[in-house]
Amino acid sequence: MNFAxxxxxxxxxxxxxKDKKRTSHRLIFGDSENMxxxxxxxVQLVVTSPPYFNAPFDYPDLFENYDAYLNxxxxxxxxxxRVVSNGRIVCIVCDDMLIGGEKYxxxxxxxxxxxxxxxTYRDKIIWIKPEGYIRISRRSGVVLQHPYPMYYYxxxxxxxxxxxxNGKFDYKSIPPRIKKRSKIDIAEYQEKKWYLTTWSIxxxxxxxxxxxxxxxxxxEEIPNRLIRLFxxxxxxxxxxFMGSGTTNKVAAILQRNSIGYEIDLELxxxxxxxxxxxxxxxxxxxxxxxxxxDAKRLRTQFQNKVSTLRSVARDGEGNPEKSV
Length: 324
Ligand SMILES: C[S@@+](CC[C@H](N)C(=O)[O-])C[C@H]1O[C@@H](n2cnc3c(N)ncnc32)[C@H](O)[C@@H]1O
What we know:
The protein has 324 residues and is of the alpha/beta class. Helix content is 33%, strand content 21%. It has a domain at 37-257: Vaccinia Virus protein VP39 (Rossmann fold, 3-Layer(aba) Sandwich), CATH 3.40.50.150.
């Protein structure tokens, strides 16, 4: 894996190397509504970010309608309830989505879905991005053009991290040696204010030719915090919506095993690149890639649709209620 210098520094090379064990990483291409490869209770942490329905600049028309989206999310939540071990955590990065002038309450609906699937709703963290970064459109500018009531549309610089728990955790079940190796760096916890329900973290910047182009990837700092706060060294971290493989990469850096499901086979090259697989196969990491019959090819078709949408948005229809 390409270890980020930040993570090496934080954990200290010597500390990591002392007890270092091989970790295993399973990359499965197929629909995560079916995780038949995973035995019941075999996962200790889930860190993921599903598609935000048919997010116009990421996954246009992925789902037939909002009900189809919610049904898919219910199917995945049901599988997660089966594979997540007792007392353990599911973290879901998500956001409401404005499509064609309609706002879809994804955060509220996912909260309900996970509670209905049998998880306890434990916490909600608001991820705040830098103010200068507004990805789609500056809706707030409408008030500048029309400085009157009812023209207000705020710019969105946040996403939500929902945290669910699968029953009660047995704190005595962790051997002292593993606890010691998984200890949280309290100086960093304080300095970066992990203790708050708001996390200020820079998003993956939309640079030209970046690896994650066309993938709504989250920054490594999000799985970095969640994995260190909610799992122990050597445990299994799952991302059922793998995308570019950010969760898997960070899990490997942090000495956890990982499993990722991704429906889009076209992302295999991106994931391999992010994990540095071609250069590091067999060097401390066991990697297994499974391609199932239900994998699809999506990226090229999404990118074509997105570039059409972008040119329409650039021309600008000028109606804020229809802005995407
Ligand atoms: C928001 S992205 C995840 C990005 C990821 N967190 C990262 O940092 O790169 C959601 C991913 O879920 C994938 N996906 C959508 N439906 C899926 C399904 N039913 N099973 C598995 N993957 C799916 C999409 O192709 C997309 O790559």
